[in-house]
């Protein structure tokens, strides 16, 4: 079993019952996606005001919707290409909103280190996802790597809740750049160096 399979099984186990209940209400997967994004914006605002614990809890709650939208799509049979695109776009915007809120939180300190680290972490997380999208657009497998969105969410959530935000950002940054290397190497191998 691969790491991606393990992630998928955990996510489905967490959302299975609720997705079937929501499917009976008629709620669409895209609605779940948008609601999750809006809750992430609330989390970002809370983080930017300095309430890391509350912001972290709201952020983790919003991240549950990211697993739930796909589960609702499967439960209702409403898996669409547009839904996948909407989900991917709002995932990127959600991550950006959280990292930007952390930059706003650290900005008054006038200390370049947390700002630089957060900016690099934002860039790394976006590039991990971008390489996957470009690889898959070229017919390649693009999911390789040790540190993808679910891991970033968990580590960042723990960092926010515990107040160990700088170590969490450092871990996310380092492992995101390792994942970038893994995905680039995989794409190179799949393309035969062409």
From TrEMBL:
PROSITE patterns per record: CDP_ALCOHOL_P_TRANSF (PS00379)
Gene3D superfamilies: 1.20.120.1760
GO biological process, one term: phospholipid biosynthetic process
Alphabetic keyword roster: Transferase
GO molecular function, a single term: phosphotransferase activity, for other substituted phosphate groups
Highest taxon of the lineage: Bacteria
InterPro entries cross-referenced by the UniProt entry: CDP-OH_P_trans, CDP-OH_PTrfase_TM_dom, CDP_ALCOHOL_P_TRANSF_CS
KW Transferase (keyword) present: yes
One cellular component (GO) term of this entry: membrane
Family the entry assigns: Belongs to the CDP-alcohol phosphatidyltransferase class-I family.
Designated name of the protein: CDP-alcohol phosphatidyltransferase family protein
Lineage of producing organism: Bacteria, Bacillati, Chloroflexota, Dehalococcoidia, Dehalococcoidales
């Amino acid at each position: 079993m691969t790491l991606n399979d393990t992630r998928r099984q955990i996510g489905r186990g967490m959302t299975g019952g609720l997705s079937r209940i929501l499917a009976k209400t008629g709620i669409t997967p895209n609605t779940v996606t948008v609601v999750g994004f809006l809750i992430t914006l609330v989390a970002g605002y809370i983080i930017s005001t300095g309430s890391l614990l509350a912001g972290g809890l709201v952020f983790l709650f919003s991240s549950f919707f990211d697993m739930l939208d796909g589960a609702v799509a499967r439960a209702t049979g409403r898996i669409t290409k547009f839904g996948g695109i909407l989900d991917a776009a709002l995932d990127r915007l959600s991550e950006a909103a959280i990292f930007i809120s952390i930059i706003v939180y650290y900005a008054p300190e006038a200390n370049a280190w947390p700002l630089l680290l957060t900016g690099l972490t934002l860039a790394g997380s976006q590039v991990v996802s971008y390489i996957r999208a470009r690889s898959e657009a070229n017919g390649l497998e693009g999911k390789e790597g040790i540190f993808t969105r679910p891991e970033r969410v968990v580590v960042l959530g723990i960092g926010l809740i515990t107040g160990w935000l700088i170590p969490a950002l450092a871990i996310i940054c380092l492992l995101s750049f390792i994942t970038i290397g893994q995905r680039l190497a995989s794409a190179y191998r799949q393309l035969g160096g062409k």
